[in-house]
Amino acid sequence: MSEFWKYDKDIKLFVEGRIPFGDAKRQEKTASYIIDQLNKQPGIILADEVGMGKTFVALATAVSIALKPKSKPVVIMIPKGILEKWKRDLSTFLDKCLRDDNKKKRFIYKEASHPIDFLKLLDLPAGKKPKIIFLTHRAFGRSVGNPWVKLAFIRQSMLRRKNSDKYKLNFSKMASEVLYLKYIESQANSGRGIWKKLLNSHPKRWHTVLYGDGVTEIDDDLVPKAILESLDELNFDDFYEVMKKIPQRNIGNYQERVKEFKNSLNGCLTSKWDEIRTILKIELPLLIFDEAHHLKNLNQGTKSLFGTPESIKKADEVENGSLSNVFERMLFLTATPFQLGHYELCNVLRRFEGIKWKSRRKPLISKNKYIHIVNELQKSLDESQHSVQSFQKQWKRINVNFLNENGYSSTEDWWKDLTRKTKSNRSPKYLKIISDSLQLSESKVKKAERELKPWVIRHNRSRFLIDQTTPRRVWIRGKQTHPQINIEQDEGIEIEEESIAPFLLATRATMFAKGKKGLFLEGLSSTYETFKHTRVNACKTQGKNTKVLDDQLSNEKVLAGKELEWYLSSIEKLLPRDDFESSLNHPKVKATVERAFDVWKSGEKVLIFCFYVQTGRTLRRLLSYKINQFTKESGVKLLSCKEEDVEISLRRISQRLDPGENFAKDLIAGVSKLVLKYDKLTNYAEDIANIVRRYLKGPTSLVRFVPIKEVLETRSDYKEIVDKILTKEMGASLSFKNIFENFLGFLNERAGGENFSDELKHYLVALEKSNPSYTASKEYKEMCKEALSSDEIQGKGDELLVPNVKLANGSVKDITRQKLMLTFNTPFLPEILVASSVMAEGMDLHLNCRHVIHHDLCWNPSSLEQRTGRVDRIGAKAEKCGKPITIYYPYIAATQDEKMYKVVMDREQWFKIVMGEKMETLEDVMDSKDEPIPLPDEIAQLLQFKLSIA
Known about the structure:
Layout: H1 21-38, E1 43-46, H2 54-66, E2 74-78, H3 83-97, H4 101-105, E3 109-112, H5 115-122, E4 132-136, H6 147-157, H7 164-172, H8 175-179, H9 182-187, H10 194-199, H11 206-212, H12 225-230, H13 237-243, H14 254-276, E5 284-289, H15 303-306, E6 327-333, H16 342-350, H17 367-395, H18 400-405, H19 411-423, H20 429-452, E7 456-457, E8 473-477, H21 500-509, H22 519-526, H23 528-541, H24 562-574, H25 580-584, H26 587-601, E9 605-609, H27 613-639, H28 646-654, H29 662-675, H30 685-697, H31 699-705, H32 708-713, H33 719-727, H34 736-749, H35 757-770, H36 780-786, H37 790-793, E10 805-808, H38 814-824, E11 832-835, E12 849-854, H39 861-868, H40 877-881, E13 885-889, H41 896-911, H42 922-925, H43 937-943
């Protein structure tokens, strides 16, 4: 084996104001450990909890290896939606964490969205070759579209063939049309003859041929070296047969024959590309694959990376994929390794079989030895899971009635008593069985843990904030979600008498929904609109695929049997009319909207997750309605005017914040004074001050943060008013100034070097578009629309949608999602984000938000954790203000909604220890009458795998 990789001593992950010292040391230690393990073994999985900085650990690993002398590029493969985030994080890393200026100067990174672009990057000379290449997950799944590669395939198919000159001549007549290279033919001195010259020359000489014929507007690298080296290994007989069918004369149905030829040619191109990408002669040091749980099955979209069509049938055959036998080592990242079943986790580990085992840096263990290790690990995980499942079965013999009958107020109290009794052998027999079953489970878990530890690293965050006394998270459940209801116990939201009939029918209808997707019934618990929308679409499509959800289940069929149909029709007749008041009277909607509105009114941001398309739209509409009503009512009170005059009056006040006005000048001066404290923001002081000015011009900001009466009484000197605005509390015991200065510190970090200038501008541009100017020339409704891109509207277009509330679902483009992530992380608009699963992975939403409402639950507790993880990250607002992250679970009492809530909460503890436990659906659990008791935390901790590096 060649020289060992080592952690680069010039990488220091501590960044003041961004990465705390303790977290930085853990990350550095983890990266160093990963590199040490990669020297011995084919790969490793980093599976830290959400928000603990896996990206920076991975970058420290990647940069340490990429900076080695003569090292080839490290490849980082990521979902397309988080590419920009990774690039920003790498910029931060290079500027703040890599402490050697010479290394910074020679560190180049690039991205490639297509395999041809990727291969061209590998051909760059040493001084220009990137150290890191970003690839999206599906980059290698794309068909070949490069015209020069197509031409190389065509040339290869006619090489040393009889009569090929005739086919070359025929192809030359239409080459510019087939290859979409008309400019080449128009620039070439030989015109159409250039194509025959190229077909008679090796692709290595094409530059010379083209330049000699007068064509100069071409790339330096036409056909990647790796493709040229693979051509002789392929059979092009099928290609040649297609070339024989080139139309020779422009007669009859010539265009139709040309079209047919193009289609046949493209079919061959696709087939040949599938072959060639599995034999590419590439050798690279390291692949880092983010969101690695997507590799759990080879029949997913990533199948072409690690397996051929033949190997897809066997999950453990990965030797021949397009990225197999390419990398010396692999590092996989995932925050949710245990949402996989243990078999699927082993499948992910088996992807490491695809490394380049015969490289100069081969692992200390052989491939056969590694296969044996994973097989043995799977057996141990089997035994561990079976023993825990057996314990789980015994545990479920205990229910709430048992606790009540025996005088226990909590599970924890009962468990302590049970432990004491079992030691003295005085407990009932079945309780002794439970205790014995637990001991067996613990021993099996520890054995599997020892075997798993070299391959999976997982750190869990502290349950407390930095002061070690304030809980990091608090949970508000059911009826507690409504801000006007003050109770300590966990109770579901009650249904008002006038609304109860539909829910009673829905509960009854569940018996007819067995074996079918009960979207109608779950939809009713979400919003009335979702139920109606699901029903209407189902009637229109009669069971065809329909867009009712907003995540991975969006294409499931929505079915209803004859008996169920009667209930659904009856429910629909009983639903209230579709207006604001009726929508808001939905029991769970009322709790969610009132809570979100209450948090917003206090000056804090809130993130709402929902499952259904229509639910997201409804919540945004209702919150816009509530905020608009609040603005009007506040305006009436503050201005002592009629409601119909509020808009005009507020607009007149906002005009005092127009450029050149005294109020605007004093505000800009006061804000600029704060900005100028940050040395790297001096060039942006005016831009940032104007963002604050535009934010305060909005009517919702005027009535919440501006002392309107004092503004009306002032004509020249507004300095005291500006001071009052800056010291105004905005929730969490933080003033506007506190929050703004935290944001300035954040921006200052992003303005630290030349790599950072673009990121800072991204924030400023996004804020400018999201905080429209409230001017007299615009109607209020139009002003609000100005803050929305076309993909965000998603409605009739005539309803009032205030810019304070934004919607992010599957219909929102990637570029819009990135803008929403940036702006939600600032103190400005938007202040409420209603999101679906598209914002649940890879998004940082933590800098100014510590409130998460799970309006719709997921059966999978890991999905809920991923959502909450958006605001629970290193440097989160909770850490800055010393107040916990608050998580809300609204659910409706005595309905399938409550049943789902209790099952998911029970599953949350079990899911951490019973890997990949089969997810029951609502229909599976509705018949159960026994209410499970929660698993004591002591047991959950005992049976969890402990995979941190001590």
